[in-house]
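Run log, item B.
One chain of 468 residues. Sequence copied directly from the ordering sheet:
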Amino acid sequence: MQQLTGLDASFVYSESAHAPTHVTSIMIYDQSTAPKGEVTFKGILEYLQERVHLAHAFRRKLVRVPLDLDHPYWIEDGEFDIEYHVRHIALPKPGDWRQFCIQAARLHARPLDLARPLWEMYIIEGLDGVEGYPKGCFGMVLKVHHAAIDGMAGVEMITAVHEQTPTIESPPPPAETWVPERAPSSGELLSRASLNNLTRPAHFARVMGRVVPGLNRAAQLQRSGGASRPATAPRTRFNGPVTPHRVIDAFTTSVTSAKGIKSAVPGATINDVVLTVYGGGLRTYLTAKGELPETSLLAMCPISLRSAEQAKAGGNSVSAMVVPLGTQIGDPLERLKFVQSSSHASKEFAEASDARSLSEMSQFLPGGLIGIGMRFSSRFARIAPAMVNTTCTNVPGAREPIYFAGAKCVSSFGAGPVVDGMGLINVITSYVDDLVLAFTGCREMMPDPAFYKDCIAEAWVALEEATG
C-alpha cells in the first residue's frame, strides 16, 4: 500500500463529472508490419496481459480515506480484469481524420471509474480514410488518470506496451510474484491518518526551511531585473466554466524544421519555437473572432522536477513557469525573440524560488480543504481574474519507431485535461522526427477546432519563412 503525494492527490480532489483530470495518448498503427499482416483484438488482449507487470499503474487502484482526512492510497487490485480496461470499437465509413478526432474527443471527455485501476484503452478500427496513412490502420486511445502519472512516467507506461521491432517477444518475468492487496477498513485508514497528521508538523518545518530562502532568492532576482513577474492574464473565451464536451486535433511538422527555426535566435529552444507558433495561432484565431486582447496571452508550462535517478518513478513531480506567448506581436521573428527572452526569465524565476520545495507544500494541505477550494474556484470561474489563458505542455516521445503487437506506430500525439477557468490545453509531442502540436479544448469555447489547427499551421509556415 503506497500513499499518494499531495500533488498527485490534488488531481483526485479536483476531479468533477464535467472536468475529469486524466491524460490521453492517441496513436495510429500500420498493422501490415505485424505477424501475418494483421492484428486481432484477441491478440492485443493476450499481448497486454503478458505486459501489465511492467508498469504499476496497470493493476493498482485508489483507496480514499473517509472524509478525505488524509491523502488516498494505491493498492494492488485483486479484482483486476483486463477486458474491462481494453475496449474495441470501429469508425463507420469513410473513417477519415475528422471522424477519428471526434471519436477520440468523446472518449477523452468521459471520466474514468475511480473505483478501478485508473486507465482505459480503446482500439479503434476503420481508419481507411485518413489521408497520408496506409489502408488498414487502427488507432489506440489510452486514458490514464493524472494522479497516476505525469508526462515522463507516461512515457514509461507507453514503453511497457511497445517493442523496438515488429517481432513479438515475451517480456522478462516479474522480479517478484504479484500479490493482490486487501482493501483497508475505514478504521485502519483513519488510524493511519491520525499518525500521519501527528508527524507532519516536523516535516512541514523542514520544507519551510528550504522554501523561505528560495522565495528570498526569487525576490532578489526580480528586484535586480534578472526576472520579471508575469503580468495578469487578459480574459479570453477560454477563461470561464467548461462543459463536459471536448474537441481534439493536431498539426504535424518535423523536429528537423524546428531546429532550423530556433537557430535564427541565439539561445532559443524548440520549446520556444513551439510556444511562438501557438502564440501566432491564437493571435489569428482570436483576431478572426474579434477578440484579440491588447496584451499578451499567458501560458502555463509544466516543468518536470525529476532528477535522472527519479526518471522512472511513478506519480507527479512537477512545477510550472508562466510564459507570455507574444500574441500582441504580429511579426513572427520578433515574437520568437520575445518568447525566448520571456521563457528564459520565467525559468530563472522558477529555479530561484526552489520549485521542488514549493511543490512539496501540497503534501500538507488537507484533502477535504483542497476539494472545497476546487469547487469554490470553479463556481467563480466566470468572473474571477484569469491567472493564465492556456497550458502548453511538452511530452517527449520515442526517437526510434516503436511497435504495438507487431504493428508499427506511424503517428503519436496527446490530449490533456481542461478545467474551469482554462478551457484550452496545448500538448506538444515528438515521435522519431515528427513534432506534433496538438490541443484539447472545451467544445463550446472552441466549436471550430479545424480552424484553430489551420491557424497553427499558418503560424508555423510564417515563422519558418521569417527565419529561413
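Observations after the first pass:
- The CA atoms of residues 300 and 322 lie 5 Å apart.
- Residues 186-223 form the longest helix (38 residues).
Flagged for discussion on Thursday.
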